[in-house]
């Protein structure tokens, strides 16, 4: 039973969080771009997962294959950054992709514009998690040729435009509202059309939220030397979990952090239990950077709707571009260790849970920065159950 003192303690602790990390993934499954600040739109961080690689179908009646890091581990050997160098998500012209495989000194680079000229580009039907959209094929030169040469297989680069987005399904979107329309609304009639929640090439929702406390728990599980300070373990990199927003304590890393985590110590007042986010329903993010409104910082709400089920993509070793193996020096298999007791969602009963899917409340874009204060303003009494037609269990 949750007592009043327990609830007060929870509220005090979860009001001492800040934004510790921001990531955007312009091309899905490639390495993310870490940011100091970014614009969050109703369909996710600006430029997040606007592009995706596919393997074109080779036979009649076959479908194109979406290239995901869970199947093509070498995708992690491609890094991304905005260009011009040093630009923010708001003023960047595009993404600079660099391919740097191990033991090969020569790098290959490619520029991909954020506002490509789509006139004359062919369209391809994309099927992802039972949702469809029409995406633009960016063409042979230089895009397909670059990735095909690097990967050694036929690859196409697709772009999803604002007018051809996917639709999030099941109970992953926030509760839908009826949208009244035009003349019918003026005459006092309501429309049967429901508000749709659109997404890019992100799996299920525009935002994925994770915490440093839960990452620390995973690190402790799969390698005991995280505590003793010996051996090859360097600490898990949060980017493997591909979040958009990472939350943590305001001073450094969670207490007793494993080697390789950012420096800093915290007091017991900063400690939030690992996996507490399973029960979070709504966050308030308060900007700590100008501009302010009437002398007060802006406050943005993020609705957390469902858990994020994980696959073996988190086992990929970014240094080698291969799946980790605990029998090899420095090998990591975090998936194995969170399978032990993190299969907590009956809607995804064969998969471990790490992180929560989120949606920006409202239709206006907002700016979020490292250091912004975060508070849990609404909790669920029980964990939510994931439902997505054709995928959930």
TrEMBL record:
Q: Which GO terms describe its molecular function?
A: catalytic activity; molybdenum ion binding; pyridoxal phosphate binding
**Listed Low complexity bias regions:** 248-264
Q: Which residues form the MOSC domain?
A: 176-377
**SUPFAM superfamilies in UniProt:** MOSC N-terminal domain-like
InterPro entries membership:
MoCF_Sase_C, MOCOS_middle
- The organism's superkingdom is given as Eukaryota
Q: Where is this region: Disordered?
A: 229-269
One Pfam family name is MOSC
Q: What is this protein called?
A: MOSC domain-containing protein
Q: What is the lineage of its organism?
A: Eukaryota, Fungi, Dikarya, Ascomycota, Pezizomycotina
């Amino acid at each position: 039973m949750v007592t009043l003192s327990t609830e007060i303690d929870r509220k005090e602790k979860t009001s001492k969080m800040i934004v510790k990390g921001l990531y955007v993934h312009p091309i899905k499954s490639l390495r993310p771009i870490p940011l100091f600040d970014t614009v969050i739109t109703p369909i996710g961080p600006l430029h997040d997962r606007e592009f995706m690689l596919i393997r074109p179908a080779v036979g009649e009646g076959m479908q194109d294959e979406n290239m995901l890091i869970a199947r093509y581990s070498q995708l992690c050997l491609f890094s991304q950054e905005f260009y011009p160098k040093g630009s923010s998500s708001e003023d960047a012209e595009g993404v600079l992709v660099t391919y740097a495989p191990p033991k090969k000194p020569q790098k290959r680079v490619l520029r991909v514009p954020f506002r490509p000229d789509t006139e004359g580009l062919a369209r391809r039907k994309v099927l992802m998690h039972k949702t469809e959209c029409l995406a633009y094929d960016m063409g042979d030169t230089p895009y397909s040729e670059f990735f095909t040469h690097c990967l050694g297989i036929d690859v196409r680069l697709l772009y999803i435009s604002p007018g051809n987005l996917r639709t999030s399904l099941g109970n992953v979107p926030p509760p839908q509202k009826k949208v009244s329309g035009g003349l019918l609304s003026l005459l006092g009639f309501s429309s049967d059309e429901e508000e749709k929640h659109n997404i890019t090439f992100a799996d299920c929702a525009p935002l994925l939220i994770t915490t440093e406390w839960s990452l620390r728990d995973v690190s402790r599980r799969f390698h005991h030397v995280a505590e003793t300070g010996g051996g090859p373990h360097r600490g898990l990199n949060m980017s493997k979990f591909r979040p958009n927003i990472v939350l943590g304590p305001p001073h450094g890393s969670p207490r007793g952090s494993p080697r390789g985590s950012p420096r800093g110590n915290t007091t017991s007042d900063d400690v939030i239990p690992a996996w507490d986010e399973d029960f979070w329903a709504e966050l308030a993010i308060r900007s700590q950077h100008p501009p302010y409104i009437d002398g007060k910082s802006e406050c943005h709400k993020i609705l957390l709707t469902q858990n994020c089920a994980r696959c073996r993509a988190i086992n990929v070793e970014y240094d080698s571009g291969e799946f980790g193996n605990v029998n090899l020096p420095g090998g990591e298999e975090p998936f194995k260790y969170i399978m032990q007791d993190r299969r907590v969602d009956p809607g995804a009963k064969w998969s471990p849970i790490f992180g929560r899917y989120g949606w920006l409340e409202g239709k206006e874009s907002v700016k979020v920065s490292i250091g912004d204060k975060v508070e849990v303003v609404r909790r669920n009494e029980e964990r939510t159950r994931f439902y997505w037609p054709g995928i959930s269990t």
